[in-house]
Amino acid sequence: MIFENFWFSTYNSPMTSSLLPAPQLSWPVNWHDIFGREAALLLEIGFGGGHFLVDLAQKRPSANVLGVEISLPALDRAQRKIKTGVLGNVRLLQSDARYLLQALCAPESLAEVYINFPDPWPKARQLHRRLINVDFLHLLATRLVPGGLLDIATDHADYALAITEALEATPYFRSRLATTFVTEDNERLRTKYEQIGLAEGRICHYYKWERRKTAVPNQYPVPKEFPMPHVVLHSPLNLDEIQAQYGRWQFSVDNCHINFMELFRAKAEDALFVETYIKEEPVTQRLGLVIRQREPGNYVISLHELGFPRPTLGVQRAIGQLATWLLGLHEEATLLHHNLQPEVLEREVNHAA
Ligand SMILES: C[S@@+](CC[C@H](N)C(=O)[O-])C[C@H]1O[C@@H](n2cnc3c(N)ncnc32)[C@H](O)[C@@H]1O
What we know:
Blueprint: H1 2-12, H2 31-35, E1 41-45, H3 51-59, E2 64-69, H4 72-85, E3 90-94, H5 97-104, E4 110-116, H6 134-143, E5 144-154, H7 157-169, E6 173-175, H8 192-199, E7 205-211, E8 230-234, H9 239-245, E9 249-253, E10 256-266, E11 271-280, E12 283-295, E13 298-303, H10 313-327, E14 334-338, H11 342-347, H12 349-352
Parallel strand pairs: 1-2, 1-4, 2-3, 4-5
Antiparallel strand pairs: 5-7, 6-7, 8-13, 8-14, 9-10, 10-11, 11-12, 12-13
């Protein structure tokens, strides 16, 4: 009910709230439904104060404009600007850009992407945090329409070198300019970091590229959700005995990392709650798995619904692992029923049963 009310106000009143409820958006999002009309979708990644985003939305009223930011204070500032400007064609999302691109954007759904002054992460040990590299450009190419535009600007000389190399090494883009980049662009609105860079005497690099029309192999599938997973099993152990044997552990399979953390006893019901961290690119979730006693000796392991968890393959694997562990605690424990995917079964539950 709370979800419906929130969604209703967000969807129907773009002038009062342009912020989208990131955890509740479907994979991928139908952006035409979100904006209430069919139009070219323009994205700014890391909009900071939001000046460029607001300017873009004002200059392009016939486009749907989406801004993604990880910083909450930046989102607040941009939201205030959008309200002041009474702009109906712009939506904001608090998310990591990679998650937005891979999970929320269908292949070939974006018409234009703008990245202004991405964080340069100048120290050697931080280089891996830079957003733009060959892999990221490949992901972007899968989400841009053929001929879609990609504009990047930076005032960081070393990052500029890396961006130049990455763009030139990626076969899916070509420059719209005669050169890889230019160092002057007086057409565009200057962003806050651009003004700082210029005031401090740094050279800005402006890249204006486009996606080639040739096909781009999609190595970045939109993540899938499955029916709410559960395993039913019998064990002669009671909840106290199960709780006593629990210890934190973690495991990894096929780029999916699962960390079983604290275990809590639910006071009001016959259940154990296992705080679990699951990382499976591009999705990271911290959620609760529940071992619930239906009747003495019969247990159901399932996903707690608190906080809009997404029932991914990683969640299935986590439930399979937890079931495997529980079955392994007693030789008379038996698996009664489950709805996990066959591959999870083979690796986890069947292995132990
Ligand atoms: C150096 S600031 C530039 C802000 C603005 N574009 C400008 O030019 O003034 C970089 C911005 O990117 C955001 N950012 C960094 N990594 C991000 C990511 N992975 N996804 C979305 N936003 C990101 C940061 O929070 C920050 O606001």
